[in-house]
Amino acid sequence: MSQFAINLLFVGGSFLLYILIAVWAKAGSTSDFYVAGGGVHPVTNGMAIGADWMSAASFISMAGLIAAGGYANSTFLMGWTGGYVLLAMLLAPYLRKFGKFTVPEFIGDRYYSPNARLVAVICLIVASVTYVIGQMAGAGVAFSRFLEVEATNGLMIAAVVVFIYAVLGGMKGITYTQVAQYCVLIIAYTIPAVFISLQLTGNPIPMFGMFSTHTESGLPLLEKLNMVVTDLGFREYTADIDNKLNMVLFTLSLMIGTAGLPHVIIRFFTVPKVADARWSGGWALVFIALLYLTAPAVASMARLNLMTTIYPEGTAAQPIEYDARPAWIATWEETGLIKFEDKNNDGRIQVYNDGNADFAATAAERGWEGNELSVNNDILVLANPEIANLPGWVIGLIAAGGLAAALSTAAGLLLAISSAVSHDLIKGRINPNITDKGELLAARISMAVAIVVATWLGANPPGFAAQVVALAFGIAAASLFPALMMGIFSKRVNNIGATLGMLSGLIFTLVYIFIYKGWFFIPGTNNLPDTAEFWVLGISPLSIGAVGALVNFAVAFGVSKVTAEPPVEIQELVESVRYPRGAGSAQDH
Amino acid sequence: MSGHSYDAENYWKANLRLIFGSLIIWALVSYGFAILLRPMLAGIPVGGTDLGFWFAQQGSILTFIALIFFYAWRMNKIDEQFGVHEE
């Protein structure tokens, strides 16, 4: 069977499974559509949160980022997991007790202000739309590489599948497809990792293999990797970094942002009890950690594998000839994600750090005239099975896994967007007397429109699509998280304080990002170059969300202090979300 | 509500104490061991590198999992103790 047929079998088989689940889990009411009827078991929910959370970026890009950055990019590992501690302790159980359908609804009720609710809706939509574009585009790339179709056509196929299960089943359909997608993606991610770990260290568990001995050299794997990369002028893989303030703030922004992302929070509304919301957080992190603990091992091993592929006789000897390159390099060259340029015309592939002035003399001595191979970070995971010479079915599995990661996150985001439109805008502002049936129809139509818009944006990504970390996490951290947390932990913060707090956190964060990245991300409109020497106190625009959150807290408390206390019934509402008894299932008013 | 208010207040305080303690550990393993205190832990070798690196790429995540399960278990007990648990 050809590789194409194998890929088609795996991807087609997984899609068929998702559609069968959709038919089985059809939504019959708004409660089904928004919160899957509220009866999801915490372990099931944990698995669904895992798929909801782990996007194309986690599956495809994260290991590549860590491979390139080494220790410095541990921020992603800690940031994208540590947020679950905040969620499980500071938000999820109380929002579950509140028992409504959407995140803006809590903000609107708690701050007795339709305007606060509207600000929350806008934040939710901007963050989620930015996020969903990357998922759709990621699905398109995976399709074009593995199924040899145009990226745009691949995108269409993905959109149709999401359409079927999300429009039909809402949260109910999404929950159970996410469980299936989690299984597909975690198997796809770990199998190649296990084989590579076995090949390099003899240890089948990647998270242990990474810290054990590299069989071939007899040295600890990370020590070997440090030697290889420093021989070629790169920074030591495990080297510590100087700008710790920025590292702390970036990690904190990712954590707070994670906790404030609506598509993750609403998954906690689907469990029957407050206690289940707490357990869900733990289970979610267990399932997420299976991938996140493996990713750093994949990163270090793939980096070492890549270097030993290029320098088979060791870094002191000649690199391989271009004509003798392995087949996977040739395959990925076709996609443009690997590029080779023979700068010194010696027919060999030199890979080294040509930006390192201290290494220039060594390079000149060896007759090297620049780094000749550029490898896109994103291919590391996708090419892993080929790099390790694994059988064809593993490649098919990776294709299905990458698509599962992209589609499950896209569906979660689309639900967050469509429920904000149908529940917070249509029912909340335009037609409060809409019937349950009418609202369900409105929710389905909103979902359909959201999918069409997301697909179009995925095919024609606007400039801001690449700014998921800055925009989605920045907004969630600076505006939504503080408003939600204060709504639970303070009885004193009032409507004016919260609204101004959200707006100032949001504006502060966006302005700082725009100054360095261009106004509304239009190239050339930035006021200062986006490099470390121009950042205030060395804080990168990606790390500013945590400071924005601080601004939000400060403004909200300050303004609330000098304005009227919230009404008694609001203080009672805050009181009631703090105590689990009497939660009932999530429902409408 | 008034009859319960004294107990309710203590329940909330117990929750806040538990959160506070958990978040100190949360910050210690990530911002502490993995970032700011890494140079101090540099002397402790772990498989070819140092303890700080291990916390940055493995240990912090494992600690987060333990923290959430501990919080959920402890909080469910506290719910029962104060009689605010769900039937």
UniProtKB/TrEMBL annotation, chain B:
InterPro entries: Na_symporter_ssu (IPR019886). Residues 9-85 form the Sodium symporter small subunit domain. The chain crosses the membrane at residues 18-41, 53-73. The keyword Ribonucleoprotein does not apply. Keywords: Membrane, Transmembrane, Transmembrane helix. It comes from the Bacteria. This is Sodium symporter small subunit domain-containing protein. It comes from Marinobacter nauticus.
